[in-house]
Amino acid sequence: MVKIKILSTSDVHGYLFPTNFSGVNDQQPFGYLRAASVIKQIRAANPDEIVLFIENGDFIEGSPLTSYAFNTHDTEHLNQKLCEMVNDVKPNAMVLGNHEFNYGVDYIADTWQHRNFPILDANITGPNHSKMIDAPYQIIESHGVKIGILGLTTQYVPNWEQPANIAGLKFQSAVQTAKHYVPILKSQADIVVVAYHGGFERDLDNGKPTEQLTGENEGDELLKAVDGIDALVTGHQHRELAQLVHGIPITQPGYRGANVGEIDLELDAQKQIVNRDAKLIKTANYPVDSKLSEVVNGLQATVEKWMDQPLATINGDMRITDYMDARLHGNAYLDLINKIQMDKMGVDISGTALFNDEITGFDRTVTIRNVVNSYVFPNTLVVEQLSGADLKFALEKCASFFTLHDDGRITVSKAFSQPKLQLFNYDYYSGIEYTFDLNQPVGQRVVKVIYHGKPLLDDQTIKVVMNQYRGTGTGGYDTFSTDKVIQSDSDDMPKLIMNYLKQHRTIDAHQPDNLHIIGIDHKKI
After folding, report:
1. Domain 5'-Nucleotidase C-terminal spans what residues (predicted)?
2. List of long-range contacts for 64-67, beta carbons under 8 Å, 24+ apart
3. Is the domain of 32 the same as that of 180?
4. Greatest extent of the chain over all pairs of C-alpha atoms, in Å
5. Burial of 455 by CB count in 10 Å (0-12 exposed, 13-18 middle, 19+ buried)?
6. pLDDT tens, residue by residue, 435-477
7. Both 184 and 317 in a single domain?
8. Which of 145, 346, 466, 479 is the 20 to 30 Å CA partner of 88?
9. Which of 285, 303, 321 represents a domain boundary (last residue)?
């Protein structure tokens, strides 16, 4: 009898330390240094079992720490430490996530150039893939058992990413790629593990689609269409999942190192699986790994010092304390972000999102900490030429964010909260005056749109600035597309915001009044 444990982290997004950097003394129940303790302790406690560890992507982008490295060009120093740290945890494989590509192929290659583990990706091809990818798969032999690991990344990367960042790369369907490689692995290995930086496009219980079937997430189709997969490690969606799907154990360990995924397989003497299970292990219950703390010693203090540099002063209030109210009425912080986008791209309509409910807006003295904690993605900007009808379609999508209950309460609709919360897919607009009537059915809630003092006509041509993520139509905004882009910019938004604040050292906060909601009972929001 042989037992196998397949451990995984995914979507760490540069959160090494147990902090979200909201303040110098902030402490949080997550972080890669905690996850490392979990992995090491499980290995030590199970010496007679096969214990594998897979790092499943989105590691080098997404936190104030990684923003520090990129914006200060201190990448060589920091990335050496990142690589040294991950080397110490000894992954059996790493898979690239979509956000790895935000800084380009060379950045990925430089970060992991001294790695002691393989980067596996079978569905990324092209002349530049060898800079960062070692092989499509590998086979590990231990305790007389051969285990094949196949690496896959969501094929949807080109829909979001700047072309320059993925030059020389092609992204194929994970399902079609697995159909080719899994039989090859099955002929050579006893157990086949697929590590996929992607998630599930259907409800795990009833099989109904939970999103548009664009190919961004192919987890369900992988398990249904590809014979021979014995375990599936997933990520990308930041969901916390551990169960059997179509009889196959799957995990998805959330975000920021909050969990370590564990898949357990038990094999009989003929190397056939007789038991299988999946679970998540919360890292909050584990200490920070002391050895890795030494590796990155002093780094947190360096980042904290960088983040507290002042950029500008706000006259008035640009904090966010009521997130639903900010989405229902707009907010001075969101209005400023739109103003920065319009100023940069020279247009007078802009949309932006309040990405999550950890964003606090800007303090009276705005610091780098405020910026990188408020605008948490390295989005770049595009301008799309649209019709009035196009914009109204997008506004209807925004209006569907809200559910008005019979008792007058307003909550986030199921379309934006299930199977996971998608606050980043609701946009607030500046440059227009618009009204939602929440008493009306979804799709008929936009009752007024005023532009330059006149009703916006369906056939009227307008220019709208948005981030490139939204500009691809992602999030159900089918009216937007790359073929409507007439202008783009290569600088990411955190950089643009910092530059704007440095140029406008004193900024007046104004609560906007351009979004009107019919159906609100303010006492029940």
Report:
1. 328-481
2. 64/21, 64/303, 64/307, 64/369, 64/372, 64/373, 65/14, 65/15, 65/16, 65/17, 65/21, 65/299, 65/300, 65/303, 66/13, 66/14, 67/372, 67/378, 67/494
3. yes
4. 78
5. exposed
6. 999 999 999 999 999 999 999 999 999 999 999 999 999 999 9
7. no
8. 145
9. 303
Show Cβ contacts of residue 446 under 8 Å, excluding neighbours closer than 6 positions: 392, 395, 396, 399, 434, 435, 436
The bridge status of strand 361-362 relative to strand 381-387 is unpaired
Q: Which helix (H) or strand (E) holds 181?
A: helix 174-188
Distances (CA, A) of 243 to 250, 344, 449: 6, 47, 46
CATH number, domain of 277, equals 3.60.21.10
> Which distant-in-sequence residues (6+ apart) come within 8 Å of 225 by Cβ?
175, 179
pLDDT per position as a tens digit, 112-146 = 999 999 999 999 999 988 999 999 999 999 999 99
CA 191 to chain centre: 30
CATH number where 428 lies: 3.90.780.10
| Phi, psi dihedrals of residue 88, rounded to the nearest 5° | -65, -30
User: How many structural domains comprise the chain?
Assistant: 2
Q: Are 232 and 249 in contact (CB under 8 A)?
A: yes
Host domain of residue 71: 2-303
Q: What are phi and psi of 489, to 5 degrees?
A: -135, 145
